[in-house]
Amino acid sequence: MSRIKKLIILIVCVLLVGIFDVFVIGDTFIHEFPIILEGSGVPEVEIENEDVLEVYEAMSTPETARVVFKGKNPGRTEVHITVRGDGGKYLTHSGVYCVHRNGLITQGGYLGTTNRFYIIGIEAALCFVIAFILRVRKCMKLAKKNMYSYSLAGHIGVALFLLACSVLFIAVSIRQGTANYRIDIMYMAFFNIFELFAMVAFPIVFIVSIYLCVSNVVLIRKEGFSFTNCLCILLGFGLILMTFLGYYTERILYMDPYSYKNLFKLRLVSHIVMFFYSLLCYFECILVSTFYCAERAGRYVPRRNKDYIIVLGCGLKKDGTLTPLLAGRADRAIWFSKKQKDETGRDIIFIPSGGKGDDEVIAEGEAIRNYLIEKGIKPDHILVENKSTSTYENLKYSFDIIKNREREAFEGDGHVGIAYSTTDYHVLRSGVIAKEQGVKATGLGSRTKWYFHINAIIREFIAILKAERRTHIRNVILLMIYTLVLFFIATKIGYL
């Protein structure tokens, strides 16, 4: 569907919602209150400015009095309601009623109580629900095409963000609908949903942050100090700091948040804090999505219909033997080949991939080949790639070997099943690289140390932000526009 069609549908929906609100909220206001007088009669209503408001209906029962007001012209007026009972007893209610230009009537001022205003909150929540459903459909389409996609991870993160907003909007709407219908309270509730999200999520964020810091301390002790080995510590402290920074920013920039001496400054600071919290919530959702996509890719086991499996190299010991990390990749490939052989009787060709580094005595591909033979793999089932120096080249040169052997299949409609074996945290990135090269391949992940695993996923989080930076910048701009719109409303209608 084109963007123009989507825009037209959005405009039509907004018009329909506006028409719906006119009929649901209308230009009437129902005022009901309990009475304890015996023999009460019809409420007597005195309106000081009859050009603004009129009585549409007035009635009473033994338990309640009911007056329905109808707006006539925009304005403000005092209203006095009197209910008389037996013995000369009477009960009075007084208040200020305002008629807005759109016909809405509020009691207690322009930001006071109105009937059924919570419907606006429910409509806002439904907008987020619809956006969430559309985003989920987009994720499903992307997942069918290729599960190894940074774009998919980004869309899932946005879907989680929309889901969180939907739940918060619905909860606020229900709460306000059962409590009261004050516009200013409803506005404040929607204004603070991102802060509410941050506070609700903080216990989980705190536990995760501790886990991130502990894992990084262990990683540094095991692998040595480097900037990339400190990513989890930085993220852990960052999440905690950002959660509280928004809370204290308001008090740092505006020491007396309850003072009404400078309303513009107070509104500005409040909306800056809200924008800050919205960013925090957004990127927390992207982080959760990264964990999900990386774990899903790393734990996935391909179908047993593969012709080739590439073992991606990652460095050797000084004596030219495999490191535990690389041995895990080779063992995982061997496990898959035996599993496929037992279930389908189909053999698989191994392609150990990796060139010779400056500090290595043998090419990684050759070392992996020797290891495979030691594990019982027949030499004629192994094709070595020994020129690559990166993951991109690992896959490219290995794919070239496969294409040269299966030229007829690639040129025709034949199917060549390709898998690659790497460490679990590396499956997603390798799949993205394979997709960029136009080759359909499925990843197989081997387990690694927990402290190394979590740090690697944080690197994937950064890679997703970088790869989908245009999408994230656009979403941040939308959040900024949302904040500016609320700030404009607050300034114009005198909120706070």
Helix/strand class: alpha/beta
Distance between the termini: 42 Å
Helix content: 55-70%
Strand content: 5-15%
Beta-strand segment tally: 11
**In this structure, how is the largest beta sheet organized?**
4 strands, antiparallel
Total DSSP helices: 14
**Contiguous uncertain segments of 5+ residues:** none
Mean pLDDT: 81
Strand line-up across the major sheet: 2-5-6-7
SSE pattern: HEEEEEEEHHHHHHEHEHHHEHEHH
- Principal-axis shape equals elongated
Rg on CA atoms, Å:
33 Å
Q: Topology, please?
A:
Layout: H1 3-24, E1 28-34, E2 44-47, E3 53-60, E4 64-71, E5 75-84, E6 90-99, E7 105-107, H2 118-145, H3 150-179, H4 183-191, H5 193-223, H6 231-253, H7 263-299, E8 308-312, H8 324-344, E9 349-353, H9 364-374, H10 391-405, H11 407-411, E10 418-423, H12 427-436, E11 442-446, H13 450-467, H14 469-493
Parallel strand pairs: 8-9, 8-10, 10-11
Antiparallel strand pairs: 1-4, 2-5, 3-4, 5-6, 6-7
Helix pairs in contact: 2-3, 3-4, 3-5, 3-7, 3-13, 5-6, 5-7, 5-13, 6-7, 7-13, 7-14
Question: If you had to describe this structure to a student in words, what would you say it looks like?
Answer:
The chain is of the alpha/beta class and 496 residues long. It is built from 14 helices and eleven strands. The chain has a four-stranded antiparallel β-sheet with strand order 2-5-6-7, with no helix packed on it. Strand 6 and strand 7 form a beta hairpin. The chain is elongated and about 110 Å long. The two termini are 42 Å apart. 35% of the residues are buried. The model has no long low-confidence stretch (mean pLDDT 81).
